[in-house]
Amino acid sequence: MTWRLFEQVRGIVSGGVQDGVMVRRATGASSASRVKGARRPEVRLPPLEPHGGGELEPDGDYDGLEFLEADFAGQDGAGARFMDCALRGCALDETRLHHARFLDSVLTGIRGVGTDLAESTLRDVELIDARLGGVQLHGAALERVVIRGGKIDYLNLRTAVLKDVVFESCVLVEPDFGGARLERVEFVDCALKGVDLTAATLKDVDLRGAASLEIARGVDRLAGAVISPSQLLDLAPVLAAEVGIRVEG
What we know:
Blueprint lengths: L2 H13 L8 E2 L3 H4 L16 E2 L10 E3 L1 E4 L12 E3 L2 E3 L12 E8 L2 E3 L7 E13 L7 E13 L7 E8 L2 E3 L7 E8 L2 E6 L4 E6 L5 E6 L7 E3 L1 H15 L6
Parallel strand pairs: 1-17, 2-4, 3-5, 4-6, 5-7, 6-7, 7-9, 8-9, 9-10, 10-11, 10-12, 11-13, 12-14, 13-15, 14-16, 15-17
Helix pairs in contact: 1-3
């Protein structure tokens, strides 16, 4: 990638819109002040009662409970409500939590493959050190959520709504934000590999703190995001291809 090409791409993406592409380039405090930061959750759990065991129930109501290293693999908790709860070290392989609600809760060290959280609601939630693969969150609503540490492979957030969400010190492998709406979303010291932003809508999305940023699809949807100059250089080949710039030696 030549410096001349970098200058061409930088001029396109920092100077306005061309072929639907616009990315704000960080230029000191004045640029940073235009990006609204995410409001983080302030979860203060009350004294919790231990969960008495037993399987999850569809439309179950769980309030002020601690689930400690419970194995919910294959169980059906669709439509359940978790309020002021802590899930610690729980197994969620193929667990059905479609349309579930997690409110003012902490999920620590959960693990699972194929967890179904489609169209669920997460509000004022901390998700810490999760190890998940193929988790379904399409059509979900996330508000004031922190996802810290851990690794999530093939995260499906298609058509989801994310507002005041922080991804921090985690690894996201091929996350799918297709058709999602992201507002006041921050990526802090996390690795983003093979991101799909097809048809996504971004507003006040701060990518500057990402440790690595790899966009596989939907680079044209970066309008409403802010990236660093070094990230711009890394993305230059993808941006050049998007706007039709030919690179020849």
